[in-house]
Amino acid sequence: MRSWHSPARAAVLSLAAAWTTATALAQKPAPVEDVSSFPHRSPDEERKALHVPPGFEVQLVAAEPDIHKPLNLAFDDRGRLWITDTVEYPYPVKPGAKGRDTVKILSDFGPDGRARSISTFADGLNIPIGLLPLPSTTAALVHNIPDIYLMRDTDGDGRADSRDVLYGIFGHRDTHGMTNAFTWGIDGWVYACHGYANDSRVQGKDRKPIAMNSGNTYRMRPDGSHAEYVTHGQVNPFGLAFDPLGNLYSADCHSRPVYQLLRGAWYPSFGKPHDGLGFGPEMVDYDHGSTGIGGISYYAAEQFPEAYRGTVFVGNVVTNRINHDRIEWHGSTPKGIEQPDFVWSEDNWFRPVDIELGPDGALYVADFYNRIIGHYEVPLTHPGRDRTSGRVWRIVYKGGGQPAASAWKDWTKAAVAELVSALKDPNLAVRVSATNQLVERGGDEAASVLAGVLTGSAAGPVRSHALWALQRLGRLDDEQLSRTCRDERDRDLRVHTMKVSAERPELSAKLRGQVVARLKDSDAFVRRAAAEALGSHPDPAQIRPLLDLLQATTREDSHLLHVVRMALRDQLKERDSWKALASTRLTDRDRRCLADVSVGVHAEEAATFLMSYVRNNPVDSADLRRFGHHIARYGDADAVASIAAFAKELKGPPKERLELFQEIQQGADERTTPIDPGVRGLAAAVCRGWLDSKRDDQIGLAVQAARDFPLPELIPDLSRLAAGETAEAVRSEALHAIAAIDPRMALPLLRDLTVGSGSPIAVREAAAVALANLDRPEAQKAVLDALATAPEQLQSTIAAALARRSEGAASLLQTIESGKASPRILQERRVVIGLENAGIPELGKRIATLLKGLPPADQKLKDLFDRRRSAYASKPHDASRGARVFEKNCGICHQIEGKGARVGPQLDGIGSRGLDRLMEDILDPNRNVDQSFRVTNLALENGRVVSGLLLREEGEILILADAQGKEVRVPRSNVEERSTAQISPMPANMAEQIPEDDFRDLLDFLLRHREDKAPKP
């Protein structure tokens, strides 16, 4: 293959760029809209609206009424295209009911790409996203809520008459994030994504379950014997693809559109931690203007021009495009270089949700054709949602000088010699089919021929595939593997030899030594694969060579660095490794590297090593915090006492000391171990000094620490702060801290501030919420009494807080019915949801009686929207000022352009929603609440209620994010009752919190973050 920087490549890219620029001037893509205002187009009309670079052609493979809405695509070894399609989405059918969804098989493709045969393999299904036909081509793995089934055609009629559960149970709370993208690895495993917001406990026949929450990737044996993690994290991975070296790529929503995944690594998700080593490295630092990515394909064929080979395509359902990324390699680390969009559409019903490389070298695209983007932009009941239209497209290169599309081949009938010959095919999809067939039915003949191939001198990928086929057949011995390990001619073969070594149940001493030697290979991919293999087979003797590789690797090769760090950590999971280290001569640099990865080892030995390191080496404040947390969480009694003593003796800035105290406290909480009283005393002393500070950041940190420890001795100081003349936000935080530390002592102050009219409304609201969250009769009476005289804004806040608990909800309704509070409170969505959750009898009838004669609830909001819309159109606004408004009010939970927190949804491209939808999202956040962002209410044994977005659970601690995006840590043992409400954690009174001038600036800022421009030149 010619160089990536060849003249041919440059010419093609230049042509594509010129075409993109010219087309952009002539035509514009349809604007991005949550609900398209454009009419439904026929398949032929839509095809004319799809634009591709010069020389490419878009062909229709299938469309309604032959298929409905396609979800996943997969080719079998006969060259047939299997699809899952749905009518039911987004509502799963009720248990016991029969669904209307299907698995269909498309075949007999004409010269124009059209499938002339479409048959139904399985019907009666329930949103079947995952799909993979097996080498027999009479069976397939099919996800059908709530399990993965082996569906087989046993009588030869082309329909599945046998259905057996292989893996389950998979969560389906959120139907746009279920398990998907079943993908063959050359290793014989089936790789898959686990989608957003769902919880699944999955096991095979070996009864060894894995528990997955939200985004993960995993792999499973196709016979149902075993499933295991591949990676942890990501938000909603939807699409997987391999390259010829066995590197795995994913498409993800809300983190990055493309990742090259490292086995065992952790990746960013909403509010979730990593494994102590940091998140796996990124491949791209851009988002393609969207957080809705579906489907990915690595182009490993030769039908497309050279400039497109070895590049990545991802589906962008928000912007109606297929994005294109070139890969620039830095050692073994890929860096994505954004290219002109490969496909852009004038029709914004085009929703590319899956992309597959066909055995003919063309790309096949599942088009979920819909006027609505996806799942949560509008209510699920929106009447504009299309349920029956769907298309599959074929994109093929028709320009001159390129090979024609490969002839279709039924590999299930090919002889062994023909299958072996196919292992040199330039198309990776063909090679995988041939490999699977050799394993499926090649037997002794295949093993004998493949052994000869392995010892031969064939160039290209033949020997790599032969190696894996022998491994899967159980016919690869250590001597064969040792020879390929020594092969200096074939870099790819050495990489795959290392990967095979990682899969072996054990390594012989000879082979282990050869794998260790490959840590010094001239090629970074070989070094990375060798480190991964050693991570799978830990041994104390491997620590030294892994340390040497880690220290010799530059930061530019971030993927190699992370793999070596994971491998080094995995050596330290063995107790013998710590014994060996005790007698090993280590340099300061060695110890620093070991300390860095020891945080990922949840064992007393790691904590003991870290304590020794902290005591004898300079450590920066960030590392000191994570080391201190780990020691307090996992150390033995001596280590815990030592870190406490160290913290007490530590000199330095008060902020760093307090942060260390907090980390030690949190680590102790997670293992339910009391913290050293001396540490508590020092933390209290620092906090007391800062509560009198003139700086809000210092006060805020002290208040949070007082609450989290907790430090009851600071209640008098907090009370003075809450009743003083400081900033409203500071006073509010002090009130909540007092309530968290000692509800009984907090009650009088909270009652006085709630009822009294001398304090700012924000402070009165904070006091009212804290008071309502005290599960005490006197507290409930106080807030109910305040309803009669409170202003409307405060009434709404009190009512919403009361409605979180069943007792409070019932009392609230009775108070309104007795005429002591305005029934207009019942027009608040967040209040009604709380009452509904409380299960109050005849609630609908009682509310209707109370609201009779009042203007509709939405009239008030409509008037607010009209005023704000008119003001935005007629008054000035400034995006630069809006950026500061976002940072202050929104960045505490949301991220945009990499700035802000990842607690709530990422907001890149949000401007595409338009002015009206943005105002709706900000001013009425409870209108459409995604299931992953519902409020969790925790009733504690001390009579307090804590509410917020549940982020994660660490040991014995539940961690929530409150309305300000701050973490609240609650011991599991303190929780008496736990419930979830269909309410957004986002404050419902943003109209009051953000002044109108600032609100216009914020809208300007958000509206500028959109992706409705023409294709990138």
Automatic annotation (TrEMBL):
A family per Pfam: HEAT_2
Lineage per the UniProt record: Bacteria, Pseudomonadati, Planctomycetota, Planctomycetia, Isosphaerales
Entry protein name: Cytochrome c
GO MF term set: electron transfer activity; heme binding; metal ion binding
Keywords: Heme, Iron, Metal-binding, Signal
InterPro entries: 6-blade_b-propeller_TolB-like, ARM-like, ARM-type_fold, Cyt_c-like_dom, Cyt_c-like_dom_sf, DUF7133, Haem-bd_dom_put, Membrane-bound_put_N
Chain ranges of the Cytochrome c domain: 877-1010
Signal sequence segment: 1-26
Annotated source species: Aquisphaera giovannonii
Keyword Heme: yes
Domain of life: Bacteria
